[in-house]
Write a structure and sequence with these properties.
Layout (H helix, E strand, L loop, with lengths): L4 H22 L5 H22 L11 E15 L2 E19 L2 E10 L4 E12 L2 E9 L4 H4 L12 H6 L3 E10 L3 E8 L14 E12 L2 E11 L4 E13 L2 E12 L3 E13 L4 E11 L7 E13 L2 E10 L23 E10 L1
């Protein structure tokens, strides 16, 4: 909360002046020396208040903003007649952010359903000679779908393809530059998906992403990363495009790894959404992918609707169908899909998300 420096000074002065007046009425023998001493005390306190107000006045050196979101979900999965269903609090995210002496900071933690608190983001950032600089734990600039906040995804969960090829969060440093027609971001980190030290092999990753605004209604992005780890070395790249026309938003993305040891894997995700009303958005998504050594490719279609109850409450329902079996090598994450060799798996998800 910001407090005006003038209000602080006038408030303290008024309080002290009122006290001094009361004492004067109560004791008519108040001499000149005591009055001068009171005046000096008031001036000393005002000078001290003036120095302290600089930390909490408008444009203060430190600010704190607490926010986050909660996702309450019901899921139904039918896998060749074997169905599972139930409720869950899929995510509870708490975020603290603000300004810290001309630096920005963000710290966030998350409770997944049935799990303890896990640190997500923890970084500081600033501008250095026209370059954006970030240090700490954050999302590496790679897959666009992952860079979008989980609270702003089109479907209830990110695609299985993004789970498989995701950069996740890493610990390191990042530089970015806005070129006007394009934006570049590069990072040097411990490697993909090494948040909180998970899987760190004393190696490194170098990642770069370029986003270009072709027109006001079309944009493209490309990114590449080299992960040089003690036991695993691989290169991965991605390309994506977005198109917005009227109420339509179309996106397409392709991602692949180049691994001399394990072979080449790839995945693609296509989405289309339409803003039906000011509160209602319908969407469809198709994802397809291949893992080396797996006979059956991933093939999943999802159709759904988002309804904004208000600016902070969103209700989403989607229906998914798997045209092929889903191999256990795919990272299904919290999607609700089950690994199975049988085609025709169906998935129904409905979720109420509340931001605060």
């Amino acid at each position: 909360m910001n407090i005006s420096r003038k209000l602080m000074k006038f408030g303290i002065a008024g309080l002290l002046a009122g006290a001094a007046t009361s004492f004067a009425v109560a004791d008519s023998t108040l001499d000149t020396e005591r009055a001068e001493a009171t005046k000096a005390l008031v001036n000393d306190i005002l000078r001290d208040a003036d120095s302290r107000a600089s930390f909490i006045a408008d444009g203060s050196a430190v600010s704190v903003n607490v926010h986050g979101f909660v996702q309450n979900r019901w899921t139904y999965n039918d896998n060749d007649g074997d169905n599972t269903h139930g409720f869950s609090v899929a995510r509870t995210r708490l975020i603290v952010s603000g300004d810290l002496y001309n630096w920005d900071y963000e710290i966030s933690g998350q409770w997944d359903d049935g799990d303890s608190l896990t640190l997500k983001d923890a970084y500081v950032s600033t501008d250095l000679a026209g370059w954006g600089f970030r240090a700490g734990q954050f999302k590496t600039p790679f897959l666009r779908e992952v860079l979008v906040s989980q609270a702003d995804t089109l479907a209830i969960e990110r695609s299985v393809v993004s789970n498989q090829f995701s950069q996740g969060r890493s610990q390191g440093v990042q530089f970015s530059r806005d070129l006007g027609f394009a934006a570049f971001t590069g990072a040097y980190t411990d490697g993909f998906n090494t948040a909180n030290g998970a899987g760190v092999q004393n190696g490194y990753a170098v990642t770069g992403r370029l986003d270009v605004g072709v027109t006001d209604w079309m944009g493209v992005g490309v990114a590449a990363s080299h992960n040089d780890l003690d036991t695993t070395d691989y290169n991965t790249w991605t390309a994506d495009a977005t198109l917005s026309l009227g109420g339509w938003d179309l996106t397409g993305a392709y991602v692949a790894t180049v691994d001399d040891t394990n072979g080449d894997d790839w995945g693609t995700v296509w989405t289309a959404s339409y803003q039906c009303t000011s509160k209602t958005q319908g969407f469809v998504q198709y994802e397809n992918g291949h893992l080396e050594g797996v006979d059956t490719d991933l093939s999943i279609a999802t159709v759904g609707v988002n309804y904004d109850v208000n600016d902070n409450v969103r209700w989403t329902t989607d229906f998914g169908y798997s045209f092929n079996g889903i191999d256990g090598g795919w990272d299904l994450g919290n999607s609700g899909w089950n690994a199975t060799g049988v085609e025709g798996q169906t998935l129904v998800r409905t979720q109420l998300q509340v931001r605060f």
